[in-house]
Each structure stands twice: as structure tokens, then as C-alpha cells.
Design goal:
This protein is mainly alpha-helical. 69% of the residues lie in helices and 0% in strands. Keywords: Membrane, Transmembrane, Transmembrane helix. Its main location: membrane.
Length: 321
């Protein structure tokens, strides 16, 4: 019973739940503000994502007349709950070691696609042609970026596993512990291609420019989200905020989880700063510099560049021990 309450606290309050939601919405606000400044606009206030969630929570939920109502209601819950669990599993170096017995990268491979699956279910159940197009685009995009992600995770697992006398190490806690003792993997030349591949993976899994194919406003009018309103749309936005924290936190844990003196409060702030810097370089700068790619261009890009870089690191890690 004590273990059950512990898991509930870590999923609903810290490091998932309230903490991850606040950090994710703050990251989204900073992303919008910095992008606006780069485009010489004033931009919205940094707390605007919080205001949007409150506003949507007070709106009426309108269901499509010819849609599949149970699936339409379930889709945002699926993505949101998947990211709640993922935020609990992910460790915060110097603060939280991850859920014991659950905190491994293989589980993260199953949890990360949950928001994409939710978008596909939402588009398919909305009876909207725009939703169907967006769902099909999201499916193609997911197949494209999951390949380099798997190679990156295997490269990190083999690197730490070989260094610690094993074959592959999928435990987040042990990966963080190894880097705290031996230095961050981002400074290892064999792992730097994998880090570049992960940077390219980030905008794809977050549905950010130039890979916002499923929700392209000028083409499919938000696609799967077109028919959503009120709390359902708010839950999609909350799931996206949680995914922002999970993806950035995954990059921090795998490549530069170093801590600083000062206790858990200081390290919690340091984790948030590293997530913010990773977001600015992988999402904000890319959004400011590029336009949307076509579906075929996106698929070829992920199979050509991130996948190649990730496999280079995987090969180097496997053969150079």
C-alpha cells in the first residue's frame, strides 16, 4: 500500500503531475516568447499557456454529430495519461532516480508514441476529412522518427553496458550514475552523432515546424484537433506540455545529466534550465529558420540523416569498447 501511494504521489505531484505540467507549460511559453522576439514581434506573455488552459477548461465541449463519441472522448485521455506515467518514470539527476522497477528506456519507447496514437484516434473518430488526413500524416511521421530514436537508445544502452562490464544497460538510474562518475556522453566522440540524431528527433515527435504535418493550420486546419473544444482540447495541450518535458528530460538524462552543488532545489532548477536550453536549440531556432516540409520530404529526411547518425554511433559503440 505504501508503494502504491508513493507511485501515485510521483505521478500526480512530483516529478510528474503538477511539477511536469507547470514546467511544460512554462517551456511552451518561453518557446513562444523567444520565437516572437526572433521574428521582431512582442509575442504573448510567458504565462499565456496557463491562461489558455484555464480558458479552455471553462468552454463547452461540442461533439461531432457523426463521429465515434466514446473514442473521441478517450483519445485526449490516452495521450495525457501516457505522458503522466512517462514523466514519473523519467529521473531528475540529483533529485529523483526514477520509479524503481519501471525507470528503463524500453518502457519509454512504449510511452512516447502515446500522444501520436491519441492524435490518430482523434482524427479517425472525428468524422472530419481534415482529421483523417492529419491522422494518416501523423502515422507516417511516427514511423519515420521512431527508427532513429530506437538506434539512439540502443547506442546509449550499449555504451553504458560495455563500460560497466555488461552488454546493454537500459536502466535510467544506472545510465545517470555512470555519467556522473565518468562524464557526460555528449562529450564522448562516439556518442556525438547520436546526440545530433536526437536533436533532429525532437521537433518531429513534438509536431513542431518543419514537421507539423498532422496539424498544419494552412493545409488541414489543425487536422485531428479541428473538432475538439473545451476540456478535450485543453487535455491535448496539457499532454503536449507533458511530452515537451519528457522528451527534453530524456535528452538530458541520456547525454548530459550532470548535477551542481546546492541540494535538490538547485538541481531541480538546473534540470529545468537544461531542458529549456535543449528546447531553444532543437525547437525554437528550427521553427524560426525553416518552413514546413512535405510528408515525403520528412520521411526521407528521417531515414537519411538522423537514422544514419544514430547508426554511426551504434556501430562505433558496439565495435569500439
Amino acid at each position: 500500500m505504501k508503494e502504491l501511494f508513493s507511485y501515485a504521489f510521483h505521478m500526480l505531484v512530483f516529478p510528474g503531475g503538477v511539477f511536469a505540467l507547470c514546467l511544460g507549460l512554462l517551456l511552451k511559453g518561453v518557446d513562444r516568447k523567444v520565437l516572437a522576439r526572433m521574428q521582431r514581434r512582442v509575442g504573448p506573455p510567458i504565462l499565456q499557456p496557463f491562461f489558455d488552459i484555464v480558458k479552455l477548461g471553462r468552454k463547452e465541449t461540442i461533439l461531432p454529430a457523426s463521429g465515434h463519441t466514446p473514442m473521441f472522448r478517450f483519445a485526449p485521455i490516452l495521450g495525457f495519461m501516457g505522458m503522466m506515467v512517462a514523466a514519473m518514470v523519467l529521473p531528475i539527476p540529483g533529485v529523483w532516480n526514477g520509479a524503481e522497477g519501471l525507470g528503463d528506456m524500453l518502457m519509454m519507447l512504449y510511452l512516447l508514441p502515446m500522444p501520436a496514437l491519441a492524435l490518430m484516434l482523434a482524427g479517425s473518430s472525428s468524422s472530419s476529412p481534415y482529421g483523417a488526413i492529419g491522422a494518416s500524416r501523423e502515422m507516417i511521421l511516427m514511423f519515420a522518427y521512431e527508427i532513429p530514436l530506437l538506434a539512439v537508445i540502443l547506442a546509449v544502452a550499449f555504451k553504458v553496458g560495455h563500460a560497466t562490464g555488461g552488454v546493454a544497460e537500459f536502466s535510467f538510474a544506472k545510465i545517470v550514475e555512470y555519467q556522473l562518475q565518468n562524464g557526460s556522453l555528449i562529450f564522448d566522440w562516439t556518442m556525438f552523432p547520436a546526440f545530433l540524431a536526437f536533436l533532429m528527433f525532437i521537433p518531429g515527435t513534438l509536431g513542431s515546424v518543419p514537421f507539423d504535418l498532422a496539424e498544419a493550420e494552412t493545409e488541414v486546419l489543425e487536422g485531428p484537433l479541428l473538432e475538439y473544444s473545451g476540456p478535450g482540447l485543453a487535455m491535448f495541450h496539457l499532454g503536449a506540455a507533458l511530452k515537451m518535458v519528457v522528451v527534453m528530460g530524456l535528452g538530458v538524462v541520456m547525454f548530459f545529466p550532470g548535477t551542481i552543488p546546492g541540494g535538490w532545489i538547485t538541481n531541480m532548477g538546473w534540470f529545468a534550465v537544461k531542458c529549456m536550453l535543449l528546447m531553444l536549440f532543437s525547437v525554437t531556432l528550427v521553427r524560426a529558420a525553416m518552413g514546413r516540409l512535405r510528408t515525403d520530404q520528412t520521411f526521407k529526411f528521417y531515414l537519411k540523416y538522423p537514422a544514419t547518425l544514430a547508426y554511426v554511433s551504434l556501430g562505433l559503440t558496439y565495435f569500439i569498447r
